[in-house]
Amino acid sequence: MTPDLESASDDVLIAGIAAGQAEALTRLFRRRQADVYRFALHMTGATALADDVTQDVFLIVMRDAARYEPGRSSATAWLCGIARNCVRQRIDRDTRLESLTTATENDATLPIIEPDPIGEMSRVERIAMLRRAVLALPVRYREVVVLCDLEELTYADAADALGCAIGTVRSRLHRARAMLAVRLAAVQAEEERKVTNTRDRALDVPVPQKRCMA
Amino acid sequence: MTCAAAREAILDFARNLSVSEDVRRAVDEHLGVCANCAAEFERQRDLTAALSALAAEAETWQASRAIEERLREVFIGRIPATPTPRLESKWTDRWIYAVATAAVIALAVWLGSRPSTPASPESVASTAASSPTSPAVSTPSVTEEKKPASSKTEGNVTAQRPVPVRAAAGRRAAPPKQVRSFEFVTLPGAAGLPDLESGSVVRIAVPVGALPEYGLDIVQGGSKTTVNADVLVGQDGLARAIRLVSAEESATQETRSRQ
């Protein structure tokens, strides 16, 4: 690989792609594919779909590299914006993904159960539960959580990726996190109920009696 | 600081974003006296920790390695100077491009002909008079034959010399060329395209009034407002040339499709 491309900025690489340099595409892909893939996987929960979205994003980059505006936002925000559109198209197309978004905005109004359930679970369980809770968020709330909290984009970059105002990003994030807290609390309550039921059933099992042989 | 103002600041505070010293001090003071906001802050901070753990786990996620090579092949295939074979995938499928191009041409021709005066019966091609009725923009029937590089390829039909008449009123028509309408005519704008290496022919319905824009003659004696035409689409999916389809050929095509 060309040494100067290895240290080149994302903006330079995108300009190189627009100029037809295959090495620039390779370098940008290796540098940014994980960002795009993670966003897509957080959004869809399916590795095959995340692969498809990643490929679609870079195909669009090939086509639209000349339209990229350096300085307007980071290249990661631009790529995430493309990925967001690809994901939304797939979600619109694929009804199976719709089943993941069963949440309604009314969920945010549910009372928060205390104490906070997150601290009660093991690390692996917490992460798995959190992934499910993120996936269950409505798309527009899910994408702000993924961009701001998981991909750690700034509010400005997230706003650029989503095509909305910074204030909108903040308000959606606020609401999304409230939804997450509610969901996690509900899941935790359900888990506790199952554990309690299992324990009660175990205690109700009659002890087999020895038969007396006369 | 009010609870509402504190809740605004708590989000950034709990997400470990940099906040001004004044805000930090005000929030600290409020959390010291408001149990509800303090509980909310604890929840948000724990949520941030949980999300950070999820983000840390996701650091190892990578897209399939096959994508890089596939993208590279597609990219190289799109550079005309590089003779690398094109990747045969759904994104580069020539037929998709060809059909899409033909549909766009047909739509553009149809839209372009709408504001103009409808072609008079006298200006309709005599050969089109006996052609089968077809919608203005019909689903193109794609023929399987491949055309050689030259856009001046002779057609296999017996050409009938049409009688040229004036273009439809209100249209800035290109001057009709002295060509036979059943031969391929290079489309305007096709001159700057790369050489034709391979291609396909797509049959579409063209409004008679739009023919002069493609260098074809309008001929008298018919009553149809559209005629069938073959569009030669190159290896890059761009249209190179167009020719009219004779009435006999259209009739043959229809008979075959009915069978």
Concise synopsis of the structure shown:
The complex is a heterodimer of chains A (214) and B (259). Chain A is mainly α and 214 residues long. Chain A contains ten helices and no strands.
Describe what this molecule looks like in 3D.
The complex is a heterodimer of chains A (214) and B (259). Helix content of chain A is 70%, strand content 0%. Chain A is mainly alpha-helical and 214 residues long. Chain A has helices at residues 3-6, 10-18, 22-44, 47-64, 75-93, 95-98, 123-136, 139-150, 155-162, 166-204. The radius of gyration of chain B is 32 Å and the shape is elongated. The relative contact order of chain B is 0.14. Chain B is α+β, with helices and mostly antiparallel strands and 259 residues long. Chain B folds into 2 domains: 3-58, no CATH class; 93-258, no CATH class. Chain B is built from 6 helices and 7 strands; from the N terminus they run αααααβββββββα. Chain B has helices at residues 3-14, 21-33, 35-58, 66-77, 94-113, 247-258; strands spanning 124-125, 141-142, 185-186, 199-207, 221-222, 226-234, 239-244. The termini of chain B are far apart. The interface between A and B is large, with 45 and 34 residues.
